[in-house]
């Protein structure tokens, strides 16, 4: 138990450290590209354990709380609210606020962009070394008392369609099944070279935390690996898989927002830490795709139009570009406060979900009673 917890903590710190560092490095490089001096690049928060300055005058820090990080461009303070002392310290031509709205937007968008690039790099490295896993529509396992078991499916069967419609991928099969709970239909199956139409009633289930019903078939599919890909092919495959993960993440969020899935399914930092430890026990090759998925999630979350996040700042810059002048400081301050409250509420809600999934509240209830 202690060993598992320690592995989860180490894996979580490593994964989060890499993702956040790459995100902030995107901001840093974009700022340097646009001629903005960067005062601080911090990995972690709190008191600095190690600090040093580079030739450009940027102070690099490694801090004691490894849960995040930040980059501080020079002159980030709004000129309307800056003190005389802060104004006097500004380096002409090197401040963030005096750059064009497009330069400031480039600095902000570079962080999420680097998260997507990191996902591509991680997946390309994995595919070029170990090959690319490919899920086939060959049945490898059948759950007892499932719709597939009741229909008489066998291991080795190849599912090629549902209800007379040809389906050429596992993703298409899963999507068709998911939206058809309780449906009486047929499965097109190839067994020992023979084509069969197998009657089936698709099962129905809901998440433990509630939500609308979704279809269940109760089969596992065979996973094959290709030989290691040439680097150009690996990069292309990494781009395609990153795009696929992005679409699936957006789809999942949309289903939560529209009530098709329960918000209780939203995991937080504790769940990520638990999954990090579980994935890490299978080796570094298993950790890479997990990090790629988290990197995509981090990039997407930061693009949300919430003022505290990069997406909210981009909204301000878009409005500024349209109006020809910045959004009033008072409006920004109010939006920032609402954004901070929204992020805090999301963090608390996801943490509550994590603790609930771990059974903490049930344990407390049983202990008190």
From TrEMBL:
EC number in record: 3.4.24.-
Principal cellular location given in the protein's record: membrane
Organism: Acetobacter thailandicus
Family: Belongs to the peptidase M50B family.
Protein's name in the database: Zinc metalloprotease
Compartment list: Membrane
Domain PDZ: 139-191
Pfam families: PDZ_6, Peptidase_M50
Keyword presence, Transmembrane: yes
Molecular function terms from GO: metallopeptidase activity
Topology within the bilayer: Multi-pass membrane protein
Needed cofactors: Zn(2+)
Source species, domain of life: Bacteria
Gene of this entry: rseP
Transmembrane segments: 6-26, 105-129, 282-304, 334-352
Keywords annotated in UniProt: Hydrolase, Membrane, Metal-binding, Metalloprotease, Protease, Transmembrane, Transmembrane helix, Zinc
């Amino acid at each position: 138990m202690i060993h598992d917890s320690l592995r989860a903590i180490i894996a979580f710190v490593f994964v989060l450290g890499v993702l956040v560092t790459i995100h902030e490095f995107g901001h840093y490089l974009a700022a340097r590209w646009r001629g903005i001096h960067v005062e601080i690049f911090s990995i972690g928060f709190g008191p600095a354990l190690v600090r040093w300055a580079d030739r450009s005058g940027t102070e690099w820090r490694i801090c004691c709380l490894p849960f995040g990080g930040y980059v501080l461009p020079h002159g980030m303070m709004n000129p309307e609210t800056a003190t005389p002392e802060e104004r006097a310290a500004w380096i002409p031509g090197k401040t963030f606020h005096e750059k064009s709205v497009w330069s400031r937007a480039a600095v902000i968008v570079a962080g999420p962009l680097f998260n997507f690039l990191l996902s591509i790099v991680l997946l390309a490295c994995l595919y070029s070394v170990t090959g690319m896993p490919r899920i086939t529509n060959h049945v490898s396992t059948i759950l007892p008392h499932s719709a597939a078991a009741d229909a008489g499916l066998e291991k080795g069967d190849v599912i090629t369609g549902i209800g007379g419609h040809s389906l050429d991928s596992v993703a298409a099969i899963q999507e068709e099944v998911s939206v058809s709970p309780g449906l009486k239909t047929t499965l097109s199956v190839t067994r020992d070279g023979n084509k069969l139409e197998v009657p089936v009633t698709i099962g129905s289930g809901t998440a433990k935390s509630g939500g609308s019903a979704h279809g269940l078939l109760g089969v596992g599919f065979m996973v094959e690996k290709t030989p290691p890909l040439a680097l150009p092919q690996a990069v292309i495959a990494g781009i395609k898989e990153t795009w696929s993960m992005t679409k699936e993440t957006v789809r999942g969020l949309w289903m939560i927002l529209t009530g098709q899935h329960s918000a209780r399914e939203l995991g937080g930092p504790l769940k990520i830490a638990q999954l990090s430890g579980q994935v890490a026990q299978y080796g570094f090759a298993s950790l890479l795709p997990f990090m790629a998925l988290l990197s995509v999630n981090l990039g997407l979350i930061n693009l949300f139009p919430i003022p505290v996040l990069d997406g909210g700042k981009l909204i301000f810059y878009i409005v500024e570009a349209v109006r020809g002048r910045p959004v009033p400081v008072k409006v920004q301050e109010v939006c920032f406060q609402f954004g901070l409250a929204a992020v805090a509420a999301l963090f608390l809600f996801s943490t509550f979900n994590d603790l609930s999934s771990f059974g903490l509240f049930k344990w407390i209830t049983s202990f008190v009673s």
